[in-house]
Amino acid sequence: MCDFFFFGYFLWLLLNVREVRKWLPLNIVLMWILVVCALFSLSNSINPYYGLFTIHKMIRGAVLYWITVNILKSKDDFTTVINALAFSVIFQGVIVFYAKYIVKTVVVRSVGTFPHPNSLAMYLNLILPTLLCMILVSKSKKQTLYYSFALVLGMIAIVFTKSRGGLIIMLGGLFMAAGISTMLKVSFQKLRILFLGLVVVSILGSLAAPKIIQRFQKAPKESAETRHYFNSAARAMADDYFWGIGINSYSYSLANTEYYWYVYPDVEDDDREAFRDPDNARAVSRLGNCHHIYLLWASECGWISMYIFILLIALFMLVNSYLILYTRKMPFYNAIVIGLLCGFTTLHLQGFLEWVYRQTQVYYLFHFLSGVVVSIFVQRKNLQLNNKNIIIETKSLEISSESPSLKRKFFEGRMIRKESNIE
Questions:
Q1: Three-state SS for 201?
Q2: What is the pTM (predicted TM-score) of this model?
Q3: Contact 60, 367 (CB under 8 A)
Q4: Which residues contact 291 (CB under 8 A, 6 or more apart)?
Q5: Chain segment 255-310, per-residue pLDDT in tens
Q6: Gap between the Cα atoms of 50 and 59, Å rounded
Q7: 376 close to 33: Cβ distance less than 8 angstroms
Q8: Taking the mean position of all CA atoms in its chain, how far away is CA 4?
Q9: d(CA 330, CA 14)
Q10: Buried b vs exposed e over 252-283: b needs ≥16 C-beta within 10 Å?
């Protein structure tokens, strides 16, 4: 179904070129440069076929971003986007509760429909700050209840993932969103909602505190050490190959080349051959992917690709920050850009601990939400008109001229602003 809408919108835009507002939106060129870098990196890959899937995903992500920039044109479109994001959070929350309490297939850490708990936490953290910001400015009780239900359910789902980074970053993102929104404009509605939210968070926190504390206390030290080893191997790969060791090839290269010993520096040279025996369980205990997204880019596509990726992120963040100031008198759009800035911040902070950005669902969500931000930026000069539904009412007036026999008709126009549900 998603592919149907994806290709449907893409084909519609290509057949109706007048509807395309921006052929080269912000960062689209950098996205395609990263695709080229990934193609070059295949020349060093042990198994180039592994990289084709990621390159295909990168191309689709760039196209999804381009479609989003050009397809969103009205306030109703953006409202639909927020409602859909809220529904996706509710869907994941329902799946988490269903798996944990109904069928009881999850005992320790919830994953929703994702392959790993950290992936679910990061996916939700991208969305939750925007829902909070919409709650703070909403004038519709139905929408406030809908977004509040999604927000609470999403927070509970993240608690059930028991992701240490996800929990801390969730709180940081929500506090950041509340702080920026309140700082730009203080209102009784915001203070009331934040007070109620603090009460809810305190209650949920007190109930979940024992397991959360236990999760932090029992975190294995080997996990932090292994991350350090992964990073060392990634730096070595980036130093050895200008284009890296091949997109989507880090874990395979780590397991099948001499980079393997970067994650086992404690094994003596004389013992290496015996240690790497397939029957030795410890020989594969530290294998995996680099948990530092920036170093992962460097290892697989070279240092130059990492710098391009950082530039791409920086440009998105700068535009987002500019829009927060530009839309400060348009609460609806201001809430969206504040929430997305906080969501992006959580993603990029988690990038120092996880490679979750590359996982398919999060990758597509990031490109879609980036398209939302840039779509607002492209049509920023028309936002004030879109933010107010203008109705022109006319009535004819008959005004006598100097000659009694002649009359002239004039039209007096009155502009009436129709109050929106979300100001």
A1: helix
A2: 0.86
A3: no
A4: 227, 230, 231, 353, 354, 355
A5: 889 999 999 888 877 677 778 777 777 788 788 899 899 999 999 999 999 999 99
A6: 15
A7: no
A8: 22
A9: 32
A10: bbbeeeebbbbbbeebeeeeeeeeeeeeeeeb
